[in-house]
Amino acid sequence: MASEIDLSDFDEVPPSISMIESIRSFGYSFNTAVADLIDNSISAFSSKVNIHMEWGNGDPFIAILDDGEGMTEETISRNVVLGSKHPREKREKHDLGRFGFGLKTASFSMARELHVFSKTQSGQLCYRAWDLDILEQENKWLISKKLPAWYDSLDEKLKIGEKGTLVLWKNCDRLLKNSANAKAFKDMGIDLISYLGTIFCRYIASPNKLKIYVNSDDIPVEPWDPIPPGSRSLEKQELRGIRVTPYILPHQSTFENPDEYKKAGGINGWNQQQGFYVYRNKRLIVNGGWLGLKRMKVEEHINKARILVDIDTDFDEVWQIDVLKSRATIPSGDIKNSLEAIAKHVRKQADEAYRDRGKVLSRTTASPDIFLWQMKKKADQSKEFVINRNHPYVKLIKENYAGRKTDIEKLLGLIERLLPTEVIQVETAKETIQQSEIPYETVKEMTEGALMQANELMSKKKILENLTYHEPWRSYKEELIKEFL
Questions:
Q1: 200 and 58 share a domain?
Q2: Residues 477 and 372 in one domain
């Protein structure tokens, strides 16, 4: 047992007022600051949150009102203390708190005055406020608890009803740096709507819907799901309590219109939204990206790859969830290795889907003579598949065959007549047949053989141009040109 500490050897020094500026520089944006306060509303079982933004002729204020359980004098006194919760403290599943800093740090990142009003179902209205100008003037950590007279003059829609909490930001000096005029301030509100619809999608879309309103009494924030209808789910996995669900999203051509496709791209656009989506409980922490995994970068041809990762608050420390709840780090060891393997697989699937879709589009727009197989109508109007005699690889085999040229023609005719069309139709209807991808290495070897026939009449460049007009070379055109020219 440790020896008893002699407190006479210590001086108690209150926190320096200069610490406030450090607290104000945690890195919040307006969106992340508001989201942090909504976390508190969710933890208080709110069903409705109203966010009111008023420009005030260059003296803006922000009001965030919820209908949650509210706070008593005891709980509000505890919650206005910096670091009111220990990050390792066991929390209820619905609690989105982390350090007990959010209310204060998020608010002070935008404003110099923080006013908190709260009321429980059967309790009295209680109040606490911090004014940074007073703190600096008096050089003391002073928190006001006298209800201000101006509360009664607030618009009725900003007042607490039977229960709930109202947070007011006044003297918004930091906010003015990002919104120099009324238009910029209005645009911030529009951006906030999209952001909140993304971060709190699962709450807004759940059966017990959370309704969030921004400068509106009747139009709630719409949820944005990173997995739109028509997405292909890959194998779901569980890694030591972490749930991982990868998806390949549908191609642009499957969306009803360009607006729907753009919406599915998310607030950062299709390329930046690829990768991981880390949810802590139902709250989105990481909105796309590859979480710093080696050799994994944003690439256009894999922008349909999205991986949902669900963690509980028990994993906060190992995932290094930050104060802003906007960043996370994959823990090292088995979990990182497994997620890296999953990411590689999903990226490969997205790449293959990109190439396959390219082939489908090619078949609908390109001349039919680029393919090895062609469909022709017979005299009785029935259709048959025949091999394209003008395909460059067929011509190459004919030219270099040492035997009778009729042998090749007989072989091609035999393949055509024995093509099991009825079996193909039946099995395709049952979705048991998939067209195999011809790997790049195979196409490369075929290309090397064809280029050996280059001469004065037909240069390597001309042969390659001819080949890459046709399948399967067409799918690897860029790679082949880079390889051989």
A1: yes
A2: yes
From 317, 336, 365, give the residue that closes a domain. 365
* Full-model pTM: 0.70
- Label the pairing between strands 305-311 and 283-287: unpaired
- pLDDT, one tens digit per residue, over 62-104 is 999 999 999 999 989 888 776 545 445 555 555 555 445 678 8
Predicted confidence (pLDDT) at residue 22 exceeds the cutoff of 60: yes
Selection from 71-80, 114-123, 379-388 with the highest mean pLDDT: 114-123
Q: Are 290 and 316 in contact (CB under 8 A)?
A: no
Which of 310, 344, 365 represents a domain boundary (last residue)? 365
Least confident of 10-14, 146-150, 347-351, 466-470: 10-14
Statement: residue 284 has pLDDT above 80: yes
Give the total number of structural domains in the chain: 3
The CATH number assigned to the domain holding 349 equals 3.30.230
Domain containing 237 equals: 232-365
CA distance 100 to 43: 12
Region 133-137 average pLDDT = 86
